[in-house]
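Let us work through a complete example step by step.
Step 1: write down the sequence.
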Amino acid sequence: MSGVKRAIQFFRSGPIRWGILLTAVALLLLRLRVEGLDALDAINLSGWMAACAALLLGGYFLVFNERARVLSAQYLGRVPPLLDFARTLLVARVYNGLIPQTGNIYRAVSMRVELRLPYRGYVVISVATIAFELIVMGLAMIGLFSCLESSALWWRERIGEGDVPSMLIVLTVLLVLCGLAECGRQLRLVSGAREGSERSVRSDVGDFVRRVLSPSILLSGLFQSLVLLTAMVCVQWFVFAALGTRLDIAQALVFLVVNRLTQYVTVTPGNLGVRELMYGAIGATTAVGELLAVAASVLLRLLTWVVLGGLLATVVAASWRKTHQQR
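Step 2: predict the structure and record it as tokens.
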């Protein structure tokens, strides 16, 4: 675990971030020059498939917001206002896409000012969110391999051969390690934060953990996390389908795990270039194709910004209308 933490800290250093970004862009441009523009011309974009992916992304952000709001309510003892909470979350996502970690800082400060949520509360809620995601991801992988094949021969033929199931196992283990490292990093922030006495901190965190582990909240969090996982698998499928490629479940999960890895470990602003390289590497080792996988990552990035912008504009307009109606 310490090796994973040191690797994350190394890649988060400023010069390394920009060096990796420039290297990734240079490699992508070089590859495009080698393959030629004909490969891109052969890609036919399906508008309605892209629209389906955008709708699923919108649903994903709405459910993500509701899960965070439910967890915040367990810590605060009251339900945060829907529109204000959604605006803070969406703006934070935009900031994180521009400059790493700025969105997290903005969200923590905004919730402290507007909701009186202490920093330790923000951190333990983030840790609970990561825990839900890792549990559901692990259960999904176990279910997938149990359903695909139960014979030992299947494992002997595929493990270590560099195919999709092998990549899925390796990437999932890496995702879990990075998620646990992120949980450890955030928990150290709780221990270092000087907000009240040590007894009050332990009491607040302990009460929150007990509420989250209650059957209703636990099942709700796991169900919402399962919905989010399913939505993002479908988003991956529709994005590739929009470019003319149909993924199977295992392939869609591989690209999803790569996408989640870039959420936990941010190397460049929005992991621009890094995610494209990772998608291209996966595509090169499968039937998907390198350039098409890179194009899928770019399309997913564009759709994410469009959906974020649309949702943020809707929330701001609704908040403005509500404010003027109250006057």
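Step 3: interpret the result. The longest helix spans residues 290-326.
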